From TrEMBL:
Source species of the chain: Roseovarius gaetbuli
CDD domains, A to Z: ACAD10_11_N-like
Keywords: Transferase
Gene3D superfamilies: 3.90.1200.10, Phosphorylase Kinase, domain 1
Enzyme Commission numbers on file: 2.7.1.-
Keyword flag Transferase: yes
A GO term, aspect molecular function: transferase activity
PANTHER family per the UniProt record, alphabetical: AMINOGLYCOSIDE PHOSPHOTRANSFERASE DOMAIN-CONTAINING PROTEIN (PTHR47829:SF3), HYDROLASE, PUTATIVE (AFU_ORTHOLOGUE AFUA_1G12880)-RELATED (PTHR47829)
Annotated protein name in UniProt: Putative aminoglycoside phosphotransferase
Pfam families on file: APH
Amino acid sequence: MSAELNTTAVAAWLGAHLAGFSGPVSATKFSGGQSNPTYLLKTPARNYVLRRKPPGVLLKSAHAVEREFRVQRALEGSDVPVAKMHILCEDETVIGSPFYIMDEVEGRNFDSPSLPGMTPPERGALIDEMNRVLAAIHDVDITAVGLSDYGPSGNYYRRQVDRWSKQYSATQTDDLPDMTALIDWLDGNIPADDGQRTLVHGDYRLDNLLFSKDDARCLAVLDWELSTIGHPYADLAAVIMQWSMPATREGRGLAGVDRTALGLWSDQQFIERYCARRGLADIDNFGFYLAFCYFRMAAILQGVKKRALDGNASDPERGLQLGQYVPAFARQGLEAAKGVL
């Protein structure tokens, strides 16, 4: 049995509830994630992936694996590639927290958006596919797939700013004037509701996608923990925000990278192609959406830092490393708000 996962209990429960399952089971934890611990399960017949809530005391509504399971099952057969969902266990007594089982998707995953080792045409094709999938997420008919109640009605940004401000306050460990100022600015500059109500991923970036080993096809979008029904520009701005980060393992951005030479798209190219795919005109007030994304990421990383300090992070050492970026995200959020970016 693994250090954190009772594979005997998992095998017993799956043997009783998942058709075709047969143990024994061995488990290997995927490294690097800061959200819900995820494991590769190997059995004599086939492999699965198990994703569970982390141990310890959690913030209300955080780490909702039940929602992850629901949204991915709803998207099966749509233009949004997802892993096949098998079964959800909501009985916390089995391994100490709810979990779900999905297919293992064998594909390529890229930590760095600069896509080292590839040719310019290969890079361009992957970014184009990333753009296509994002537009597909936002074009999902939420009523047809049974997700119309997956998020509350009303102004998405009002709801999100309130939610993440509370989450940040609940996990705050340092006094950051930039974060306070950013929260105040967002609170006073919420855009009027423009009527767009779509599925949003909530953490859309290259390293949350799995691609075919042979071409640029995306095989699965991963990590749906923050998904909800909301406003699509938050996902779009999140991509642009990520690319502004340092081109390091921790930053996973493109700051200082010669994108043209590498065959990578500019921010404007990505936005224009997205708008063309969805039949949209130019996006007004993009600075707000960008500032919002910096704010939300700062709040998320503050939560990661707090879990690491409390000893219940999925990867405590990396959690503390990521927590060091909270002041930078707050500062860049203010710059976006001022139109500097």
